[in-house]
Amino acid sequence: MDDGTVKTAVPSRVRAAGVNIFFGYAGTVITALLSFILRKIFILYLDKTLLGVNGLYTGILSMLSMAELGIGTAFQFALYRPAAEHDTETLKAYMATYRRAYRWVAAAVAGIGLALTPFLPVIIKNPAGHSVRDLTLYYLIFLFNTVSTYFVSYKYALANAEQRNYIQTNVITLTKFATVLLQIVVLVITKNFYFFLFTDAAVQLAQKFAVSIYLDRRYPYLRERTVRPLKPEEAKSVRDKTGSLLLHRIGDALRLQTDSLLISALIEVGLVGMVDNYLLVVGTIANFVNVIFNSLITGFGNLIATGEKEKQRQMFGVYRFFAAYAYGFSFVGFFVLLTPLISMLFGTEWILPGAAIGLLLVDYYFKGERIVLSNYKTAAGVFEPDRYLALLQGVVNLVLSVALIKPCGLAGIYIGTVVSGLIANVTKPFIIYRACFDRQQMGAYYLGDLKYLAVTGLILLPSMALSAYLLPGAAQGSPVSVTGFILTAAGITVIFHLLFFLFFGRTAECGYLLHLFTDKVRARRGRKK
Hints:
This protein is mainly alpha-helical.
């Protein structure tokens, strides 16, 4: 942001985001604690191969979600304006079409998923005594869970368009809570992977029935039979955006969902489980950050549908500043403390090579900016200009990963991930500024990127020195003390905030967030009085 102070956002939009963030954080904390407990018990009672199979099948089914073709994102964008204007008839028309589309998606995912079944023995290297029959049945349970989701998940779109993301968050939290508790009991009693999977499937199925009934009652007009068809221009808009998003989906699948597949097929399926431990820790922290991002995106959709260009630009800057802060802070913490934490939680035998971890975390840092760019682009409905970009990223990732996996091992896969991700970091700002803002401000955007990156790198140096003093040998997998770990984490927190706010504390973006925070504190004190 170049000058001036950022004005306070529309109060109702801020309140809606606040509610979503509160429930999002509560759900994330509960889910994180339960996930770590379940992972520890899984490792105690089942073998590394099954942990790898669990991660591999999750990746395969995520890749199959490509069959969704971006329909959900296109319809979510289309719902923002009629939801803001309380246009019930238009909402009914969109949701009826959305429902029909997702039934076709469910059929497509089921068909493609079943077609992949004969190839499971090829992509699972070194299954350590687990039979093809068992591996196939495990996969079919995963497939059932994924396919059945499409019959309900579309209904959340209307609540999200009204900025009520907390509904979906709370459902996910309660379901996760019930699932993990039951799975822990089942593992301790039976030590059986089948019962572990059946427990998840049963709870998920019950949740889907309950959610469907609840959302039908909350939005009773969705059950009305008299629904007008979409107008030609409405249908064309959805088709055009879906067509562009199809290429995004294919590219994202090739870039984001192929790592576990390559590790399993070209190295060993058990290594997928080791990587999954790292991704669990990184993903848990990332979820705390993404709660805010995901809670704000519907507010952006509403702002873009009803607001001014200058306000949009200002809020985009605030959004980006928060990403640089949150992802920078967590990146520094991960870079220094991730390996010691894995050693403490799961044991030294689960530690990955340092080069692979470093590359994974570099991609994590740049992912923060990509989330900002992608979310804003989605809220603005800008899908067409970069429709080939994600496909290019996917191809680059796949080619580099396959070419480098033999000479570089696991690190080779993440070289492909980092390089393909940076393509979006460089090109998407140009697309957004050309479509939404003033193109003359792009130079300031890239300069801001370099400043955020340089300051984060500067902060990393004293943080690593502190770790070398308090946690000697931790980077090589040596045992660490809890006291040393806590002191290092506290020291990194102090170092990061002192230096980050020394450089950026006087910016308009930082001032806006501090003003918003102090306003909330004063409001709470006023209510107590």
